[in-house]
Protein backbone atom coordinates (compact mmCIF):
# COMPACT_ATOMS: atom_id res chain seq x y z
CA UNK A 1 0.00 0.00 0.00
CA UNK A 2 1.36 3.43 -0.90
CA UNK A 3 2.07 6.00 1.79
CA UNK A 4 -0.81 8.18 0.61
CA UNK A 5 -3.29 5.32 0.58
CA UNK A 6 -2.18 4.26 4.07
CA UNK A 7 -2.76 7.85 5.26
CA UNK A 8 -6.25 7.89 3.79
CA UNK A 9 -7.05 4.57 5.47
CA UNK A 10 -5.79 5.90 8.81
CA UNK A 11 -7.86 9.07 8.38
CA UNK A 12 -10.97 7.04 7.54
CA UNK A 13 -10.40 4.78 10.56
CA UNK A 14 -9.90 7.76 12.89
CA UNK A 15 -13.00 9.49 11.48
CA UNK A 16 -15.03 6.31 11.96
CA UNK A 17 -13.94 5.95 15.58
CA UNK A 18 -14.67 9.61 16.33
CA UNK A 19 -18.00 9.41 14.49
CA UNK A 20 -19.04 6.35 16.52
CA UNK A 21 -18.06 8.00 19.79
CA UNK A 22 -19.85 11.27 19.07
CA UNK A 23 -22.88 10.01 17.18
CA UNK A 24 -23.54 6.75 19.04
CA UNK A 25 -21.74 6.37 22.37
CA UNK A 26 -22.08 9.90 23.75
CA UNK A 27 -25.81 10.28 22.87
CA UNK A 28 -26.44 6.91 24.54
CA UNK A 29 -24.50 7.96 27.62
CA UNK A 30 -26.41 11.25 27.71
CA UNK A 31 -29.66 9.28 27.80
CA UNK A 32 -28.73 7.34 30.95
CA UNK A 33 -30.82 8.60 33.89
CA UNK A 34 -27.84 9.80 35.90
CA UNK A 35 -26.22 11.72 33.05
CA UNK A 36 -29.55 13.07 31.84
CA UNK A 37 -30.26 14.41 35.33
CA UNK A 38 -26.79 15.96 35.51
CA UNK A 39 -27.23 17.72 32.15
CA UNK A 40 -30.66 19.03 33.14
CA UNK A 41 -29.32 20.24 36.46
CA UNK A 42 -26.48 22.16 34.78
CA UNK A 43 -28.82 23.70 32.20
CA UNK A 44 -31.30 24.84 34.83
CA UNK A 45 -28.51 26.72 36.59
CA UNK A 46 -27.03 28.20 33.44
CA UNK A 47 -23.72 26.44 34.04
CA UNK A 48 -21.51 25.40 31.17
CA UNK A 49 -18.64 23.45 32.76
CA UNK A 50 -16.61 23.91 29.59
CA UNK A 51 -16.66 27.72 29.87
CA UNK A 52 -13.13 29.02 29.45
CA UNK A 53 -13.68 32.51 30.86
CA UNK A 54 -16.22 34.05 33.21
CA UNK A 55 -17.88 35.98 30.37
CA UNK A 56 -18.92 32.62 28.87
CA UNK A 57 -20.80 31.63 31.99
CA UNK A 58 -24.50 32.43 31.99
CA UNK A 59 -24.68 31.79 35.74
CA UNK A 60 -22.31 34.72 36.25
CA UNK A 61 -24.88 37.31 35.15
CA UNK A 62 -27.21 37.19 38.17
CA UNK A 63 -24.19 36.96 40.46
CA UNK A 64 -22.60 40.06 38.98
CA UNK A 65 -25.93 41.89 38.99
CA UNK A 66 -26.28 41.18 42.67
CA UNK A 67 -22.67 42.02 43.59
CA UNK A 68 -22.49 45.14 41.42
CA UNK A 69 -25.94 46.19 42.57
CA UNK A 70 -24.56 46.15 46.11
CA UNK A 71 -21.93 48.70 45.14
CA UNK A 72 -18.45 47.53 45.91
CA UNK A 73 -17.22 44.45 47.66
CA UNK A 74 -17.72 42.49 50.80
CA UNK A 75 -15.54 44.49 53.11
CA UNK A 76 -17.02 47.85 52.16
CA UNK A 77 -20.30 46.88 53.75
CA UNK A 78 -19.20 47.20 57.34
CA UNK B 1 15.60 28.59 14.51
CA UNK B 2 16.74 31.93 15.80
CA UNK B 3 20.46 32.08 16.21
CA UNK B 4 21.86 32.92 19.56
CA UNK B 5 22.39 36.64 19.91
CA UNK B 6 20.31 37.51 16.90
CA UNK B 7 16.88 36.83 18.22
CA UNK B 8 14.42 38.96 16.38
CA UNK B 9 11.70 40.61 18.37
CA UNK B 10 8.66 38.57 19.10
CA UNK B 11 6.09 38.87 16.40
CA UNK B 12 8.53 40.12 13.80
CA UNK B 13 8.57 36.68 12.27
CA UNK B 14 6.25 37.03 9.36
CA UNK B 15 3.04 35.43 8.42
CA UNK B 16 4.94 33.90 5.58
CA UNK B 17 7.05 31.97 8.05
CA UNK B 18 3.96 30.77 9.77
CA UNK B 19 2.36 29.93 6.50
CA UNK B 20 5.37 27.87 5.69
CA UNK B 21 5.00 26.27 9.10
CA UNK B 22 7.20 23.21 9.15
CA UNK B 23 7.08 20.78 11.98
CA UNK B 24 10.00 21.07 14.27
CA UNK B 25 10.78 18.00 16.24
CA UNK B 26 13.76 19.64 17.77
CA UNK B 27 13.14 20.25 21.42
CA UNK B 28 16.70 20.89 22.36
CA UNK B 29 16.48 21.95 25.99
CA UNK B 30 18.57 25.08 25.73
CA UNK B 31 17.16 26.39 22.54
CA UNK B 32 15.52 29.74 22.31
CA UNK B 33 11.90 28.74 22.50
CA UNK B 34 9.44 30.50 20.31
CA UNK B 35 5.73 30.35 20.51
CA UNK B 36 4.23 28.22 17.81
CA UNK B 37 6.75 29.47 15.32
CA UNK B 38 8.27 26.52 13.67
CA UNK B 39 11.77 26.91 12.91
CA UNK B 40 12.86 25.24 9.74
CA UNK B 41 11.42 27.84 7.49
CA UNK B 42 14.08 29.59 5.44
CA UNK B 43 12.27 32.81 6.06
CA UNK B 44 13.18 32.53 9.73
CA UNK B 45 16.73 33.18 8.71
CA UNK B 46 15.84 36.43 7.03
CA UNK B 47 17.38 39.59 8.43
CA UNK B 48 15.49 41.53 11.06
CA UNK B 49 12.94 43.87 9.62
CA UNK B 50 13.47 47.60 9.94
CA UNK B 51 11.96 49.31 12.94
CA UNK B 52 9.76 51.21 10.48
CA UNK B 53 8.25 47.86 9.50
CA UNK B 54 6.87 47.55 12.98
CA UNK B 55 3.53 48.92 11.85
CA UNK B 56 2.97 45.84 9.74
CA UNK B 57 4.65 43.28 11.99
CA UNK B 58 2.43 40.45 13.10
CA UNK B 59 1.98 41.78 16.63
CA UNK B 60 0.84 45.16 15.39
CA UNK B 61 -1.38 43.59 12.75
CA UNK B 62 -3.04 41.52 15.48
CA UNK B 63 -3.63 44.71 17.46
CA UNK B 64 -5.06 46.43 14.36
CA UNK B 65 -7.34 43.50 13.51
CA UNK B 66 -8.65 43.14 17.06
CA UNK B 67 -8.90 46.93 17.40
CA UNK B 68 -11.08 47.15 14.29
CA UNK B 69 -13.32 44.38 15.58
CA UNK B 70 -13.60 46.03 19.00
CA UNK B 71 -14.44 49.44 17.49
CA UNK B 72 -17.12 47.98 15.20
CA UNK B 73 -18.55 45.87 18.02
CA UNK B 74 -18.70 48.81 20.43
CA UNK B 75 -20.11 51.14 17.77
CA UNK B 76 -22.84 48.63 16.90
CA UNK B 77 -24.04 48.56 20.50
CA UNK B 78 -23.54 52.29 21.00
CA UNK B 79 -25.60 53.20 17.94
CA UNK B 80 -28.41 50.85 18.91
CA UNK B 81 -28.83 52.26 22.41
CA UNK B 82 -32.41 53.51 22.87
CA UNK B 83 -32.94 57.21 23.66
CA UNK B 84 -34.10 56.73 27.22
CA UNK B 85 -31.34 54.25 28.05
CA UNK B 86 -28.90 56.63 29.78
CA UNK B 87 -31.59 58.19 31.97
CA UNK B 88 -32.97 54.81 32.99
CA UNK B 89 -29.52 53.36 33.60
CA UNK B 90 -28.40 56.38 35.65
CA UNK B 91 -31.61 56.08 37.69
CA UNK B 92 -30.48 52.58 38.65
CA UNK B 93 -33.15 50.86 36.60
CA UNK B 94 -32.21 47.48 35.19
CA UNK B 95 -31.91 47.84 31.42
CA UNK B 96 -30.70 45.09 29.15
CA UNK B 97 -28.97 45.76 25.86
CA UNK B 98 -28.29 43.36 23.01
CA UNK B 99 -25.74 43.83 20.28
CA UNK B 100 -27.32 44.05 16.81
CA UNK B 101 -24.42 41.88 15.62
CA UNK B 102 -25.44 38.99 17.86
CA UNK B 103 -27.51 37.22 15.20
CA UNK B 104 -24.69 37.53 12.65
CA UNK B 105 -21.90 36.14 14.77
CA UNK B 106 -22.31 32.70 16.27
CA UNK B 107 -20.92 29.24 16.77
CA UNK B 108 -22.39 25.73 16.75
CA UNK B 109 -24.78 25.29 19.65
CA UNK B 110 -24.99 22.49 22.17
CA UNK B 111 -26.55 19.19 21.22
CA UNK B 112 -27.27 15.84 22.80
CA UNK B 113 -28.53 13.32 20.27
CA UNK B 114 -27.74 14.61 16.81
CA UNK B 115 -24.93 16.96 15.73
CA UNK B 116 -27.39 18.58 13.31
CA UNK B 117 -28.98 20.22 16.38
CA UNK B 118 -25.79 22.23 16.77
CA UNK B 119 -26.73 24.10 13.58
CA UNK B 120 -30.49 23.97 13.34
CA UNK B 121 -33.11 22.98 15.83
CA UNK B 122 -36.79 23.28 14.97
CA UNK B 123 -39.16 25.01 17.34
CA UNK B 124 -40.66 22.98 20.16
CA UNK B 125 -43.61 23.72 22.43
CA UNK B 126 -41.40 25.55 24.87
CA UNK B 127 -38.42 26.73 22.80
CA UNK B 128 -38.18 28.73 19.57
CA UNK B 129 -36.25 27.40 16.57
CA UNK B 130 -32.52 28.02 16.59
CA UNK B 131 -30.33 28.42 13.56
CA UNK B 132 -26.63 29.02 14.08
CA UNK B 133 -25.67 28.75 10.41
CA UNK B 134 -26.04 32.49 9.75
CA UNK B 135 -23.88 33.31 12.72
CA UNK B 136 -21.20 30.82 11.71
CA UNK B 137 -21.29 32.16 8.16
CA UNK B 138 -20.96 35.71 9.51
CA UNK B 139 -17.87 34.82 11.52
CA UNK B 140 -16.37 33.09 8.50
CA UNK B 141 -16.83 36.18 6.32
CA UNK B 142 -15.50 38.58 8.98
CA UNK B 143 -12.35 36.59 9.69
CA UNK B 144 -11.73 35.68 6.04
CA UNK B 145 -11.94 39.31 4.89
CA UNK B 146 -9.98 40.75 7.82
CA UNK B 147 -7.19 38.21 7.67
CA UNK B 148 -6.98 38.28 3.87
CA UNK B 149 -6.35 42.03 4.07
CA UNK B 150 -3.88 41.57 6.94
CA UNK B 151 -2.09 38.82 5.03
CA UNK B 152 -1.82 41.11 2.01
CA UNK B 153 -0.51 43.99 4.09
CA UNK B 154 2.06 41.65 5.53
CA UNK B 155 3.26 40.79 2.06
CA UNK B 156 1.84 37.28 1.73
CA UNK B 157 -0.73 36.10 -0.77
CA UNK B 158 -4.30 36.91 0.20
CA UNK B 159 -5.49 34.50 -2.50
CA UNK B 160 -3.55 31.60 -1.00
CA UNK B 161 -4.99 32.43 2.40
CA UNK B 162 -8.54 32.59 1.04
CA UNK B 163 -8.06 29.28 -0.73
CA UNK B 164 -6.92 27.53 2.45
CA UNK B 165 -9.04 29.28 5.07
CA UNK B 166 -12.41 27.58 4.35
CA UNK B 167 -11.02 24.16 5.24
CA UNK B 168 -9.29 25.37 8.39
CA UNK B 169 -12.53 27.11 9.38
CA UNK B 170 -14.48 23.94 8.62
CA UNK B 171 -12.18 21.97 10.92
CA UNK B 172 -12.71 24.58 13.64
CA UNK B 173 -16.47 24.24 13.14
CA UNK B 174 -16.12 20.47 13.52
CA UNK B 175 -14.14 20.97 16.74
CA UNK B 176 -16.81 23.33 18.11
CA UNK B 177 -19.49 20.78 17.20
CA UNK B 178 -17.61 18.04 19.04
CA UNK B 179 -17.24 20.32 22.07
CA UNK B 180 -20.96 21.16 21.97
CA UNK B 181 -22.11 17.63 22.82
CA UNK B 182 -23.70 17.93 26.26
CA UNK B 183 -21.78 15.04 27.87
CA UNK B 184 -18.52 16.49 26.61
CA UNK B 185 -19.49 19.90 27.98
CA UNK B 186 -20.56 18.45 31.32
CA UNK B 187 -17.05 17.11 31.85
CA UNK B 188 -15.32 20.41 31.07
CA UNK B 189 -13.70 19.12 27.90
CA UNK B 190 -13.23 22.45 26.17
CA UNK B 191 -13.12 23.11 22.44
CA UNK B 192 -9.35 23.65 22.57
CA UNK B 193 -8.88 19.94 23.13
CA UNK B 194 -11.06 18.93 20.18
CA UNK B 195 -9.58 21.54 17.88
CA UNK B 196 -6.18 20.12 18.68
CA UNK B 197 -7.43 16.58 18.06
CA UNK B 198 -9.03 17.46 14.72
CA UNK B 199 -5.79 19.04 13.52
CA UNK B 200 -3.69 16.17 14.85
CA UNK B 201 -5.83 13.58 13.06
CA UNK B 202 -5.23 15.33 9.73
CA UNK B 203 -1.51 15.97 10.22
CA UNK B 204 -0.79 12.46 11.49
CA UNK B 205 -2.73 10.55 8.85
CA UNK B 206 -2.71 12.16 5.42
CA UNK B 207 -0.43 15.01 6.49
CA UNK B 208 -1.22 18.70 6.30
CA UNK B 209 -1.36 19.65 2.62
CA UNK B 210 0.98 22.44 1.55
CA UNK B 211 -1.86 24.48 0.08
CA UNK B 212 -3.51 24.58 3.52
CA UNK B 213 -0.54 26.18 5.25
CA UNK B 214 -1.22 29.82 4.31
CA UNK B 215 -4.22 29.65 6.68
CA UNK B 216 -2.38 27.78 9.43
CA UNK B 217 -1.58 30.99 11.29
CA UNK B 218 -1.46 29.81 14.88
CA UNK B 219 0.33 32.76 16.38
CA UNK B 220 -1.66 35.38 14.50
CA UNK B 221 -5.00 33.84 15.53
CA UNK B 222 -3.90 33.64 19.15
CA UNK B 223 -2.59 37.19 19.32
CA UNK B 224 -5.74 38.61 17.75
CA UNK B 225 -7.88 36.51 20.09
CA UNK B 226 -5.87 37.67 23.10
CA UNK B 227 -6.30 41.35 22.27
CA UNK B 228 -10.05 40.71 22.01
CA UNK B 229 -9.89 38.87 25.33
CA UNK B 230 -8.37 42.02 26.83
CA UNK B 231 -11.76 43.72 26.48
CA UNK B 232 -13.21 41.02 28.75
CA UNK B 233 -10.56 41.54 31.44
CA UNK B 234 -12.49 44.19 33.35
CA UNK B 235 -10.43 45.54 36.23
CA UNK B 236 -13.54 47.28 37.53
CA UNK B 237 -14.78 43.87 38.70
CA UNK B 238 -11.67 43.25 40.74
CA UNK B 239 -13.31 44.28 44.01
CA UNK B 240 -16.44 42.19 43.49
CA UNK B 241 -15.68 40.27 46.69
CA UNK B 242 -13.67 43.01 48.37
CA UNK B 243 -10.45 42.35 50.26
CA UNK B 244 -11.08 38.62 50.94
CA UNK B 245 -11.45 37.96 47.22
CA UNK B 246 -8.28 39.89 46.45
CA UNK B 247 -6.28 37.94 49.01
CA UNK B 248 -7.47 34.57 47.75
CA UNK B 249 -7.18 35.34 44.06
CA UNK B 250 -4.43 37.93 43.77
CA UNK B 251 -2.09 37.16 46.66
CA UNK B 252 -2.04 33.36 46.70
CA UNK B 253 -2.01 32.99 42.91
CA UNK B 254 1.25 34.88 42.18
CA UNK B 255 2.94 33.15 45.13
CA UNK B 256 1.95 29.74 43.76
CA UNK B 257 2.92 30.69 40.21
CA UNK B 258 6.39 31.92 41.14
CA UNK B 259 7.07 29.09 43.62
CA UNK B 260 6.00 26.44 41.09
CA UNK B 261 8.20 27.99 38.42
CA UNK B 262 11.20 28.08 40.76
CA UNK B 263 10.50 24.49 41.86
CA UNK B 264 10.46 23.41 38.22
CA UNK B 265 13.77 25.12 37.53
CA UNK B 266 15.70 24.39 40.71
CA UNK B 267 14.35 21.04 41.86
CA UNK B 268 12.91 19.28 38.82
CA UNK B 269 15.36 21.04 36.49
CA UNK B 270 12.85 21.15 33.66
CA UNK B 271 14.92 21.95 30.55
CA UNK B 272 12.36 24.21 28.91
CA UNK B 273 11.69 27.38 30.88
CA UNK B 274 8.71 28.21 28.71
CA UNK B 275 7.07 24.83 29.40
CA UNK B 276 7.72 25.35 33.09
CA UNK B 277 6.13 28.81 32.95
CA UNK B 278 3.07 27.78 30.94
CA UNK B 279 2.26 24.87 33.27
CA UNK B 280 2.83 27.08 36.34
CA UNK B 281 0.51 29.77 34.96
CA UNK B 282 -2.30 27.56 33.74
CA UNK B 283 -2.31 25.64 37.03
CA UNK B 284 -2.22 28.71 39.27
CA UNK B 285 -4.27 31.27 37.31
CA UNK B 286 -7.18 29.93 35.30
CA UNK B 287 -6.40 27.06 33.00
CA UNK B 288 -6.60 27.24 29.23
CA UNK B 289 -7.01 31.01 28.85
CA UNK B 290 -4.03 31.67 31.12
CA UNK B 291 -2.00 29.03 29.30
CA UNK B 292 -2.69 30.69 25.96
CA UNK B 293 -1.78 34.16 27.22
CA UNK B 294 1.37 33.01 29.00
CA UNK B 295 2.52 30.80 26.15
CA UNK B 296 2.24 33.76 23.81
CA UNK B 297 4.05 36.03 26.26
CA UNK B 298 6.96 33.64 26.82
CA UNK B 299 7.04 32.32 23.25
CA UNK B 300 6.50 28.69 24.24
CA UNK B 301 6.45 25.99 21.61
CA UNK B 302 3.11 24.71 20.39
CA UNK B 303 3.76 21.28 21.89
CA UNK B 304 4.33 22.92 25.26
CA UNK B 305 1.00 24.73 25.12
CA UNK B 306 -0.76 21.52 24.07
CA UNK B 307 0.82 19.59 26.94
CA UNK B 308 -0.04 22.26 29.52
CA UNK B 309 -3.65 22.36 28.38
CA UNK B 310 -3.94 18.57 28.39
CA UNK B 311 -2.61 18.44 31.97
CA UNK B 312 -4.90 21.23 33.10
CA UNK B 313 -8.06 19.72 31.62
CA UNK B 314 -7.25 16.26 32.99
CA UNK B 315 -6.74 17.54 36.54
CA UNK B 316 -9.78 19.80 36.28
CA UNK B 317 -12.12 16.90 35.45
CA UNK B 318 -10.88 15.04 38.54
CA UNK B 319 -10.89 18.07 40.84
CA UNK B 320 -14.40 19.20 39.90
CA UNK B 321 -15.73 15.83 41.06
CA UNK B 322 -13.51 15.14 44.09
CA UNK B 323 -13.29 18.57 45.71
CA UNK B 324 -17.02 19.10 46.39
CA UNK B 325 -17.10 15.60 47.93
CA UNK B 326 -14.16 16.45 50.19
CA UNK B 327 -15.75 19.76 51.18
CA UNK B 328 -19.02 18.05 52.06
CA UNK B 329 -17.26 15.23 53.92
CA UNK B 330 -15.26 17.64 56.08
CA UNK B 331 -18.27 19.83 56.89
CA UNK B 332 -16.63 22.93 55.47
CA UNK B 333 -18.93 25.94 55.11
CA UNK B 334 -20.33 26.78 51.68
CA UNK B 335 -18.49 30.09 51.55
CA UNK B 336 -15.11 28.66 52.51
CA UNK B 337 -15.64 25.71 50.18
CA UNK B 338 -16.63 28.03 47.34
CA UNK B 339 -13.55 30.21 47.84
CA UNK B 340 -11.35 27.14 47.91
CA UNK B 341 -12.86 25.81 44.68
CA UNK B 342 -12.63 29.18 42.96
CA UNK B 343 -8.99 29.62 43.85
CA UNK B 344 -7.84 26.14 42.87
CA UNK B 345 -9.81 24.51 40.04
CA UNK B 346 -8.31 25.76 36.78
CA UNK B 347 -11.30 26.11 34.52
CA UNK B 348 -13.99 28.74 35.09
CA UNK B 349 -16.88 26.52 34.01
CA UNK B 350 -15.71 23.63 36.15
CA UNK B 351 -15.47 25.96 39.16
CA UNK B 352 -19.11 26.95 38.69
CA UNK B 353 -20.22 23.33 38.27
CA UNK B 354 -18.35 22.23 41.39
CA UNK B 355 -19.58 25.27 43.37
CA UNK B 356 -23.20 24.66 42.41
CA UNK B 357 -22.91 21.12 43.78
CA UNK B 358 -22.41 22.66 47.22
CA UNK B 359 -25.14 25.29 46.95
CA UNK B 360 -25.96 28.77 45.68
CA UNK B 361 -23.66 30.61 48.07
CA UNK B 362 -20.75 28.35 47.18
CA UNK B 363 -21.49 28.91 43.49
CA UNK B 364 -21.49 32.67 43.96
CA UNK B 365 -18.24 32.79 45.93
CA UNK B 366 -16.49 30.20 43.75
CA UNK B 367 -17.43 31.83 40.45
CA UNK B 368 -16.56 35.30 41.73
CA UNK B 369 -13.15 34.26 43.09
CA UNK B 370 -12.45 32.62 39.73
CA UNK B 371 -13.57 35.76 37.90
CA UNK B 372 -11.14 37.85 39.97
CA UNK B 373 -8.44 35.33 39.14
CA UNK B 374 -9.44 35.53 35.44
CA UNK B 375 -8.66 39.24 35.57
CA UNK B 376 -5.12 38.36 36.66
CA UNK B 377 -4.41 37.05 33.16
CA UNK B 378 -3.47 40.49 31.83
CA UNK B 379 -1.01 41.23 34.62
CA UNK B 380 0.44 37.73 34.38
CA UNK B 381 1.00 37.98 30.62
CA UNK B 382 2.59 41.42 31.00
CA UNK B 383 4.92 40.37 33.84
CA UNK B 384 5.92 37.13 32.08
CA UNK B 385 6.68 39.03 28.86
CA UNK B 386 8.84 41.55 30.76
CA UNK B 387 10.62 38.77 32.68
CA UNK B 388 11.25 36.86 29.46
CA UNK B 389 12.75 39.67 27.45
CA UNK B 390 14.73 40.98 30.42
CA UNK B 391 16.10 37.81 32.02
CA UNK B 392 15.46 34.70 29.95
CA UNK B 393 16.39 36.10 26.55
CA UNK B 394 19.37 38.15 27.62
CA UNK B 395 22.54 37.50 25.69
CA UNK B 396 24.96 34.74 26.77
CA UNK B 397 27.36 37.22 28.39
CA UNK B 398 24.71 37.77 31.04
CA UNK B 399 24.47 41.49 30.37
CA UNK B 400 21.04 42.83 31.12
CA UNK B 401 19.41 44.41 28.05
CA UNK B 402 18.74 48.13 27.98
CA UNK B 403 15.30 49.72 27.80
CA UNK B 404 15.39 49.99 24.01
CA UNK B 405 16.34 46.35 23.66
CA UNK B 406 13.58 45.31 26.06
CA UNK B 407 11.10 47.33 23.99
CA UNK B 408 12.49 45.87 20.78
CA UNK B 409 12.01 42.29 22.00
CA UNK B 410 8.80 42.87 23.93
CA UNK B 411 5.78 41.05 22.42
CA UNK B 412 3.80 44.10 21.38
CA UNK B 413 0.46 42.36 21.20
CA UNK B 414 0.59 42.20 25.02
CA UNK B 415 0.29 46.00 24.93
CA UNK B 416 -2.88 45.62 22.86
CA UNK B 417 -4.17 43.08 25.38
CA UNK B 418 -3.45 45.38 28.34
CA UNK B 419 -4.65 48.46 26.43
CA UNK B 420 -8.00 46.83 25.60
CA UNK B 421 -8.36 45.76 29.22
CA UNK B 422 -7.69 49.29 30.55
CA UNK B 423 -9.90 51.00 27.96
CA UNK B 424 -12.90 48.75 28.44
CA UNK B 425 -12.46 48.72 32.22
CA UNK B 426 -12.65 52.53 32.14
CA UNK B 427 -15.70 52.48 29.87
CA UNK B 428 -17.33 49.83 32.06
CA UNK B 429 -16.74 51.83 35.23
CA UNK B 430 -17.23 55.42 34.08
CA UNK B 431 -19.57 55.49 31.11
CA UNK B 432 -23.25 56.10 31.77
CA UNK B 433 -24.70 52.61 31.27
CA UNK B 434 -21.13 51.34 30.83
CA UNK B 435 -21.71 47.87 32.29
CA UNK B 436 -24.69 47.24 30.01
CA UNK B 437 -22.94 48.58 26.89
CA UNK B 438 -19.68 46.70 27.48
CA UNK B 439 -21.46 43.49 28.48
CA UNK B 440 -23.67 43.66 25.37
CA UNK B 441 -20.60 44.17 23.19
CA UNK B 442 -18.78 41.23 24.76
CA UNK B 443 -21.69 38.79 24.80
CA UNK B 444 -22.95 39.82 21.38
CA UNK B 445 -19.77 39.79 19.37
CA UNK B 446 -16.22 39.93 20.77
CA UNK B 447 -16.57 36.83 22.99
CA UNK B 448 -17.73 34.80 19.99
CA UNK B 449 -14.97 36.07 17.73
CA UNK B 450 -12.33 35.52 20.40
CA UNK B 451 -13.51 31.91 20.81
CA UNK B 452 -13.22 31.33 17.07
CA UNK B 453 -9.70 32.79 16.95
CA UNK B 454 -8.58 30.46 19.74
CA UNK B 455 -10.33 27.51 18.10
CA UNK B 456 -8.64 28.27 14.77
CA UNK B 457 -5.33 28.55 16.61
CA UNK B 458 -5.69 25.13 18.19
CA UNK B 459 -6.71 23.56 14.88
CA UNK B 460 -3.56 25.16 13.43
CA UNK B 461 -1.43 23.78 16.27
CA UNK B 462 -2.83 20.31 15.59
CA UNK B 463 -2.20 20.67 11.87
CA UNK B 464 1.42 21.51 12.55
CA UNK B 465 2.16 18.89 15.20
CA UNK B 466 3.47 15.39 14.86
CA UNK B 467 2.54 12.96 17.64
CA UNK B 468 6.20 12.05 17.91
CA UNK B 469 7.03 15.63 18.78
CA UNK B 470 4.84 15.37 21.86
CA UNK B 471 6.33 12.14 23.16
CA UNK B 472 9.62 13.49 24.57
CA UNK B 473 7.67 15.80 26.88
CA UNK B 474 6.16 12.85 28.71
CA UNK B 475 9.49 11.21 29.42
CA UNK B 476 10.43 11.29 33.09
CA UNK B 477 7.02 12.66 34.02
CA UNK B 478 8.44 16.02 35.05
CA UNK B 479 5.52 18.12 33.74
CA UNK B 480 3.14 15.91 35.71
CA UNK B 481 5.28 16.24 38.85
CA UNK B 482 5.42 20.01 38.37
CA UNK B 483 1.66 20.24 38.04
CA UNK B 484 1.09 17.97 41.05
CA UNK B 485 3.50 19.98 43.21
CA UNK B 486 2.01 23.32 42.16
CA UNK B 487 -1.57 22.19 42.64
CA UNK B 488 -0.78 20.75 46.08
CA UNK B 489 0.75 24.05 47.12
CA UNK B 490 -2.21 25.88 45.57
CA UNK B 491 -4.73 23.74 47.45
CA UNK B 492 -2.93 24.27 50.76
CA UNK B 493 -2.28 28.01 50.50
CA UNK B 494 -5.71 28.81 49.04
CA UNK B 495 -7.48 26.88 51.80
CA UNK B 496 -5.41 28.65 54.43
CA UNK B 497 -5.98 32.09 52.96
CA UNK B 498 -9.69 31.48 52.31
CA UNK B 499 -10.18 30.29 55.89
CA UNK B 500 -8.31 33.32 57.24
CA UNK B 501 -10.19 35.82 55.09
CA UNK B 502 -13.70 34.36 54.94
CA UNK B 503 -13.90 32.63 58.31
CA UNK B 504 -11.71 34.73 60.60
CA UNK B 505 -10.89 38.29 59.52
CA UNK B 506 -14.02 39.16 57.50
CA UNK B 507 -16.35 36.50 58.85
CA UNK B 508 -19.15 38.80 60.03
CA UNK B 509 -19.03 41.01 56.96
CA UNK B 510 -19.18 38.03 54.66
CA UNK B 511 -22.08 36.51 56.60
CA UNK B 512 -23.90 39.85 56.33
CA UNK B 513 -23.54 40.00 52.57
CA UNK B 514 -24.24 36.32 51.94
CA UNK B 515 -26.71 35.25 54.61
Description:
The complex is a heterodimer of chains A (78) and B (515). Chain A has 78 residues and is an all-alpha fold. Chain A folds into two domains: 1-31; 33-78, no CATH class. Chain A contains three helices and no strands. Chain A has helices at 3-30, 33-44, 60-69. Chain A is elongated. Chain B is mainly alpha-helical. Chain B has one domain. In chain B, 66% of the residues lie in helices and 1% in strands. Chain B is built from 21 helices and two strands. Chain B has helices at 15-19, 58-79, 85-90, 133-153, 158-179, 182-186, 191-203, 218-230, 242-267, 273-284, 288-298, 302-330, 334-344, 348-358, 360-392, 403-409, 413-430, 434-463, 467-474, 478-505, 507-513; strands spanning 120-121, 130-131. Chain B has a two-stranded antiparallel ribbon. In chain B, a hairpin with an 8-residue loop joins strand 1 (120-121) and strand 2 (130-131). In chain B, helix 2 (58-79) crosses helix 8, helix 5 (158-179) packs across helix 7 and helix 9 packs across helix 13 (334-344). Classes of the chains: A mainly alpha (78), B mainly alpha (515). Chain B: Its main location: membrane.
Salient structural properties:
heterodimer, A: 78 residues, mainly alpha, 2 domains, 3 helices, 64% helix, 0% strand, B: 515 residues, two-stranded antiparallel ribbon, 21 helices, 2 strands, globular
> What amount of the residues of chain B lies in strands?
under 5%
The counted number of beta strands of chain B is: 2
Largest sheet report of chain A:
none
Order of helices and strands of chain B: HHHEEHHHHHHHHHHHHHHHHHH
Order of helices and strands of chain A: HHH
Residues in helices of chain B, as a percent range: 55-70%
Individual helix count of chain A: 3
Structural class by secondary-structure content of chain B = mainly alpha
Radius of gyration of chain B, in Å, reads 23 Å
Strand fraction band of chain A?
Answer: under 5%
Unreliable runs of chain B: 1-54
Shape of chain B: globular
Q: Report the total helices of chain B.
A: 21
Helix content of chain A: 55-70%
End-to-end distance of chain A? 77 Å
Whole-number radius of gyration of chain A? 22 Å
- What is the averaged pLDDT score of chain A? 85
Subcellular location (chain B): Cell membrane
Transmembrane segments (chain B): 60-81, 133-153, 160-179, 191-208, 246-263, 275-295, 307-327, 339-359, 371-392, 413-431, 451-470, 482-502
InterPro entries (chain B): UPF0324_pro (IPR018383)
Region (Disordered) (chain B): 31-51
